[in-house]
């Protein structure tokens, strides 16, 4: 009935999906701590700055063959997660490439694809809402209360409760391929361990990319939820 209502009133919809494509082996904590903290680096920079045979090298080697060198951005974040806290701000959201892909998710001028992997013994990987979701808010909506969930977060949760979507959680060390229209959220950790989150992002057609080829200070900020807002813990 709800889907018929959405179709009748022509509400915009997005197809949200994630597909496992490969998996990484187990890495001791020392190997995970050796991963540099990166934000939108080039693959050539990643290969120069990461240990041979290490986590990032293995991640790059397992990307689909059409992900050509330096046509995508690489972000890596190393942090110690603890039970009950989130490794990043929670809430269902969509990914884009800053400065390249627009926030008009219903008609993106440059669609994007992403590959994500949460590396650790029991690393809490992101949760994806899989299925077709009807949105009555534009996901580019930005006039919101600081630290509040994005408006479409609740619509994805409701779609999962109705059974229109299903929640799919990537297993630790599994690389998942998803597009700009895939809703996903961080999950609270259940263990105390060092986790590495790696994401590669690329536009679907060749465009100039601005790489940030620098190793950044490690960030170990974690998050908690109170009511309908999230807050940084440290």
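Sequence proposed for the structure above (234 residues):
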């Amino acid at each position: 009935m709800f889907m018929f209502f959405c179709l009748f009133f022509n509400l915009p919809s997005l197809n949200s999906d994630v597909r496992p494509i490969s998996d990484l082996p187990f890495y001791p904590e020392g190997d995970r701590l050796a991963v540099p903290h990166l934000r939108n680096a080039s693959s050539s920079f990643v290969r120069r700055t990461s240990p041979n045979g290490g986590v990032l090298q293995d991640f790059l080697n397992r990307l689909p063959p059409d992900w050509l060198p330096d046509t995508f951005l690489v972000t890596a974040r190393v942090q110690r997660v603890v039970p009950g806290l989130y490794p990043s701000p929670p809430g269902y959201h969509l990914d884009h490439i800053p400065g390249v892909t627009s926030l008009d998710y219903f008609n993106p001028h440059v669609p994007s694809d992403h590959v994500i992997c949460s590396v650790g013994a029991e690393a809490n990987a992101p949760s994806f809402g899989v299925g077709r979701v009807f949105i009555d808010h534009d996901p580019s909506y930005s006039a919101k209360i600081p630290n509040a969930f994005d408006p479409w977060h609740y619509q994805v949760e409701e779609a999962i409760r109705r059974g229109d979507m299903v929640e799919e959680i990537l297993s630790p060390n599994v690389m998942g391929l998803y597009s700009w229209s895939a809703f996903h959220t961080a999950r609270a950790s259940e263990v105390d361990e060092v986790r590495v989150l790696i994401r590669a992002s690329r536009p679907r057609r060749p465009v100039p990319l601005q790489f940030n080829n620098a190793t950044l200070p490690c960030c170990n900020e974690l998050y908690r939820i109170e009511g309908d807002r999230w807050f940084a813990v440290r």
